[in-house]
């Protein structure tokens, strides 16, 4: 760290992805799984945990090998490492729950090309010691999972009248089916982004007053 | 013309040997990790697949006390070992507690509206008919395509769907066909769901494609299957 630069604490590393740089609501990264698999809370949680696993493991290994990997082959090396952990998570999900595996479908394998993971590898893990790299990746994973859960729970409640498979309303409830269809993902994401933008503007106005 | 040499690489360029060694080593570590986790998870994945399959077959044949997996290949039927060989159709013979053959279950699948619709169907040799289906995999539109599970009239199509073989035993006497809602006349026809025609047709096509291959291979070996419970 250069002299005079602000020292980033471990807690700040962890919180960066959860709040300030949330991958879904602030950086709007990883939109494919965010929109595609969040038809239920269970799917959202499964994808969030799988992505967090890949983020943490790949960040840890890349950070450990950072002084050994020449810059010319760094992207190829990162992709090999990320693809390895995606393959592992693919096997682990099949071993834990075939129902979840079928529900997440091709999006498990597509974690390889999730830009949050390669972004973290290149921008953070490749330049940081292991502990901050892992904490930062874990925070990003948790932030991503929170984002997916925020979409998945709203879509499941409105589109199916359930939350994590538990029926919330009586027999008279008419599900808002569009919410579990692809357009529903855009509607709910748009609504969350609008809410956060309104909140940020309100906070700014309060500070200015 | 300048005498300055341009073929000397800058000092910070890494040599090819180091690049190859780095990629080789990282790939070796990753390969070892993948193989280790694959070996570790393999028994659990196989057990999960077996449980899912047994659950599906038991839902079709609740009295089944024993389920035996077979592959129907061009040269006859064989007890299943690992993944089915190319061209073979995997099916499941179900037996009661006394070892009597109850029914056969097998999978069929065809492209629906969103993705492939895969169904497990139950076949009873006595009536040469399909007596029920269970959806194994489907990503159809909720509230529309999923009526193939909830619509009682559609489900009733499979109470006794005629899949009898022609006299030459090489194909079905009549193809299983999905027809427009309300126009079903024959036992081998499936009455489609209004508004979910593509999904209804996928179910019919998936079953037809599967039984057209399976039944001509299976019928000549029914006796072998009836003895199968004791093997």
Write up what this structure looks like.
The complex is a heterodimer of chains A (209) and B (231). Chain A has 209 residues and is mainly α. Chain A has one domain. Chain A is built from 8 helices and 2 strands, in the order αααααααββα. Chain A has helices spanning 10-20, 31-36, 41-64, 74-96, 98-104, 115-123, 130-160, 182-208; strands at 162-163, 166-167. In chain A, strand 1 (162-163) and strand 2 (166-167) form a beta hairpin. Chain A is globular and about 60 Å long. The two termini of chain A are 36 Å apart. By secondary structure, chain B is of the alpha+beta class. Chain B folds into 2 domains: 14-60; 62-228, no CATH class. Helix content of chain B is 35%, strand content 24%. Chain B has helices at 16-60, 147-150, 152-155, 197-218, 222-228; strands at 66-73, 76-79, 89-95, 101-111, 116-124, 129-137, 161-162, 177-179, 189-191. In chain B, the strands form 2 sheets. Chain B has a 7-stranded antiparallel beta sheet with strand order 2-1-3-4-5-6-7. In chain B, strands 8-9 form a two-stranded parallel sheet. In chain B, a hairpin with a 5-residue loop joins strand 3 and strand 4 (101-111). Chain B is globular. The mean pLDDT of chain B is 89. Classes of the chains: A mainly alpha (209), B alpha+beta (231).
């Amino acid at each position: 760290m250069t002299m005079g630069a602000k020292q980033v604490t471990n807690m700040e590393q962890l919180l960066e992805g959860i709040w300030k740089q949330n991958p879904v609501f602030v950086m709007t990264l990883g939109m494919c799984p965010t929109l595609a698999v969040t038809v239920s809370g269970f799917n959202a949680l499964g994808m969030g945990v799988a992505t967090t696993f890949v983020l943490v493991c790949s960040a840890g290994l890349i950070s450990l090998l950072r002084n050994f990997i020449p810059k010319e082959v760094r992207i190829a090396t990162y992709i090999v490492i990320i693809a390895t952990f995606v393959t592992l998570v693919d096997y682990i999900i099949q071993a834990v729950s075939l129902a979840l595996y079928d529900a997440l479908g091709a999006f498990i394998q597509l974690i390889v090309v999730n830009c949050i993971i390669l972004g973290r590898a290149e921008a953070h893990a490749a330049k940081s010691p292991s502990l901050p790299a892992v904490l930062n990746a874990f925070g990003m994973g948790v932030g991503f999972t929170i984002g997916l859960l925020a979409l998945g729970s709203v879509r499941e409640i409105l589109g199916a009248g359930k939350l994590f498979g538990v029926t919330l309303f009586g027999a008279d409830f008419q599900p808002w089916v569009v919410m579990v269809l692809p357009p529903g993902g855009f509607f709910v994401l748009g609504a969350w982004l609008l809410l956060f933008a309104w909140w940020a503007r309100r906070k700014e106005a309060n500070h200015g007053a | 013309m300048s005498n300055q040499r341009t073929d000397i690489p800058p000092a910070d360029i890494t040599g090819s040997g180091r690049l190859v060694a780095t990629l080789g080593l990282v790939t070796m570590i990753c390969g070892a990790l993948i193989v280790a986790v694959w070996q570790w998870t393999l028994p659990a994945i196989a057990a999960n697949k077996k449980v899912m399959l047994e659950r599906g077959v038991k839902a079709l044949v609740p009295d089944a006390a024993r389920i035996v997996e077979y592959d129907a290949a061009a040269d006859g039927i064989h007890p299943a070992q690992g993944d089915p060989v190319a061209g073979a159709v995997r099916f499941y013979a179900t037996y009661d507690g006394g070892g009597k053959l109850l029914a056969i279950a097998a999978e069929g699948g065809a492209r629906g509206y969103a993705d492939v619709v895969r169904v497990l169907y139950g076949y009873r040799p006595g009536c040469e008919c399909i007596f029920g289906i269970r959806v194994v995999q489907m990503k159809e539109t909720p509230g529309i395509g999923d009526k193939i599970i909830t619509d009682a009239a559609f489900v009733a199509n499979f109470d006794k769907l005629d899949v009898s073989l022609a006299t030459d035993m090489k194909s079905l006497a009549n193809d299983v066909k999905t027809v427009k809602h309300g126009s079903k006349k024959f036992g081998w026809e499936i009455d489609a769901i209004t508004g979910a025609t593509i999904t209804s047709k996928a179910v019919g096509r998936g079953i037809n494609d599967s039984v057209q291959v399976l039944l001509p291979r299976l019928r000549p070996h029914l006796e072998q299957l009836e003895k199968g419970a004791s093997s």
